[in-house]
Amino acid sequence: MTSAESSTSTSASTSASTSASTATETSTPTSTDLVPAPRTVDGPHRTPFVFATGTALAAAPGTEGVARWLRTVVGTALGRDLPPGAAGADHTITLLIDPSLAPEAYRLTVSSAVEIVGGSSAGVFWGAQTLRQLLGPDAHRRACPDPEARRGVPHQVIEDSPRFPWRGLMLDVSRHFLPKDDVLRHLDLLAAHKLNVFHFHLTDDQGWRIEIKRHPRLTEVGAWRERTKYGHRASALWDERPHGGYYTQDDIREIVAYAAERHITVVPEIDIPGHSQAAIAAYPELGNTDVIDTTTLSVWDNWGINPNVLAPTDNTLRFYEGVFEEVLGLFPATFIHIGGDECLKDQWKVSPAAQARIKELGLADEDELQSWFIRHFDSWLADRGRRLIGWDEILEGGLAPGAAVSSWRGYAGGIAAAEAGHDVVMCPEQQVYLDHRQHGGPDEPMPIGYVRTLEDVYRFEPVPPSLSPEAAAHILGTQANVWTEVMQDRSRVDYQVFPRLAAFAEVAWSALPAPAERDFADFERRMTAHYARLDALGVDYRPPGGPLPWQKRPGVIGRPIEGAPPNV
Ligand code: ACM
Questions:
Q1: Same domain, 302 and 335
Q2: Annotated active-site residue in 275, 337, 436, 530
Q3: Is the model's pLDDT at 11 over the cut of 60?
Q4: Is 275 marked active-site?
Q5: Ligand 1 atom 3: the closest Cα is on which residue?
Q6: Looking at residue 433, what DSSP letter applies?
Q7: Which atom of ligand 1 is closest in space to residue 339's alpha carbon?
């Protein structure tokens, strides 16, 4: 290596200064195109490692899963078998673990051989994702379009590690069911962006999506609705087709295993005590039967905050303990999400049974009744070695020490929780709700919420500067949330999620400077290469120039939020 050939960067923001033009042999992109940006890159240099028929793969103990992924995904995409080879040999990709590195950190060395060293198999896997990006867009296909193509990766050394241990995406499969194959594909897309938590929003008023063996009506009845509001609840339009679906327990096991192979943890959400009309439609005794005739309820076909919340009875507690027992058997994650958001108290206020419960427990009011509900499952989960996480409303009545908070109503809940010593996942709706429109123009399909552009997401900061260092240490990380009221299918989900998830991934992974100092122009430049990867992956992202004709939904009302531009 000569100094003329090399350039060393010490941070994500300066890696842009390395020149892509030093790559030879092929038009293979260089490390300067990586998304999310790595911490440091030494290189790229002129000479390429050539990924060819003879390229072999050597997997040290503990890295066999990554080797399988490289062979089946990258090898298949590039038409190479990657036969077993000798560690460290030329023309060989060697995978190994060095426990002196942080668990998710990796070092990727490209010379006449490739070596990926990770602090654990997760680190090796993230390094393999980086190698895939270096191999070019075709490495993101499902079969090889051109087996004759010479594919070179310029010599370089990349050292990288994530900023946060929780880099997530929440997907709502209740408002619109997403078939299992689409969920698996989504996990691949998370992995391609080095995201490692999949928050699976499985239950809501509009549908119950997970088979529970001891309560079969949850899916027999609760997974189906007669029709669906099309657009905002004020819209006059209906989709009159019945809608629904659910995952069997085998589907769930498959999803969890598929995620685990990609070093993604699946955090299931069962939302209580609000957002429960689908469950009550299936089992009317779960509702406030002394207030309304719950036998008349069906799975909700509209949007908004629903008054039909769970009755605070022993029967309800036992029912949900049964649900959670099956959930714990399916999901190995430490954290179990119990929702806890937007629980209207109107029915409890007029329910003699709920009022009697408040009195019997010596509680002050209905807010404390909600806390009692949450605390019951907080200790129930803790007794079983798990930790409760819920939306920031759960903070209002006090929490057990191990419980964590998803801060969605802005930063405030997360700040209060972190200062009180609780772990926090920052996901403020003002910044990272990807159902919100990504442009102020009239062509966005069913535009709702704030305008949050790619640049806005790129400048999102998960750790508020006002936090004390002790409290800041409680920010586990961040996640983007995808509520699907106005996303009827996978293509609509793609449009809302991409390209903003790429910006979000960089916020969650990379060592970015303060928001105002972030080099968005360089990110946009790297996005040019990334769009080609998304194209190869078959993602229906929002093009930089705006929606394609078939991506528009003219005439469907969105939802104005104060301060947001008017809807079409
Ligand atoms: C939420 O958006 N209701 C968590």
A1: yes
A2: 275
A3: no
A4: yes
A5: 341
A6: B
A7: 4
The CATH code of the domain that includes 146 is 3.30.379.10
Annotated active-site residue 439? The verdict is no
- Among residues 509, 277, 481, 268, which one has the least CA distance to residue 389? 268
Domain identity same for 87 and 188: no
Rounded to the nearest angstrom, the distance between the alpha carbon of 373 and the centre of ligand 1 is: 18
DSSP structure string for 90-151? TTEEEEEE-TTS-TT-EEEEESSSEEEEESSHHHHHHHHHHHHHHT-GGGGSSS-S-TT--E
Is residue 559 one of the residues assigned to a domain?
A: no
Say whether both 222 and 154 belong to one domain: no
The whole domain housing 482 covers 166-551
Query: Is residue 408 in contact with ligand 1, taking CB distance under 6 Å?
Result: yes
238 and 488 Cβ atoms separated by less than 8 Å: no
Query: Is pLDDT of 466 > 60?
Result: yes
Write the CB contacts of 174 (distance below 8 Å, at least 6 apart in sequence): 201, 202, 203, 204, 205, 206, 207, 208, 209, 278, 484
Q: Which atom of ligand 1 is nearest to the CA of 429?
A: 2
pTM here is 0.94
Q: Which atom of ligand 1 is nearest to the CA of 406?
A: 4
* Centre of ligand 1 from the C-alpha of residue 304, in Å: 11
> Do 125 and 263 sit in the same domain of this protein?
no
d(C-alpha 399, C-alpha 300), whole Å: 31
Q: Ligand 1 centroid vs 346 CA: distance in angstroms?
A: 19
**pLDDT tens figures, 438-447:** 998 889 998 8
| Active-site option among 115, 204, 393, 494 | 204
389: its two tokens: 């996480």
Q: Is 367 a catalytic residue?
A: no
Q: In this structure, are 136 and 260 located in the same domain?
A: no
Total domain count, the chain: 2
% of the chain at pLDDT higher than 70: 93
Q: Last residue of some domain: 160, 193, 211?
A: 160
Which candidate, 104, 264, 126, places its Cα nearest to that of 198? 264
Six-digit token pair at 519?
């080099």
Residues 124 and 195 in one domain: no
CA–centroid distance, 245 to ligand 1, in Å, is 22
Please tell me the distance from the alpha carbon of residue 470 to that of residue 423, in angstroms, as a whole number: 11
Same domain, 177 and 104: no
Using most ligand atoms within 8 A of CB, pick from 429, 433, 450 the residue to mutate for ligand 1. Answer: 429
> Is residue 562 one of the residues assigned to a domain?
no
- Does a structural domain hold residue 335? yes
From CA 95, how far away is CA 109, in angstroms rounded? 11
Q: Confirm or reject: Cβ of 342 under 6 Å from ligand 1.
A: yes
Residue 108 and residue 204 in one domain: no
Tell me, what's the pLDDT at 14? 32
Q: How far is the CA of 352 from the centre of ligand 1 (A)?
A: 29
Q: 567 lies in a domain?
A: no
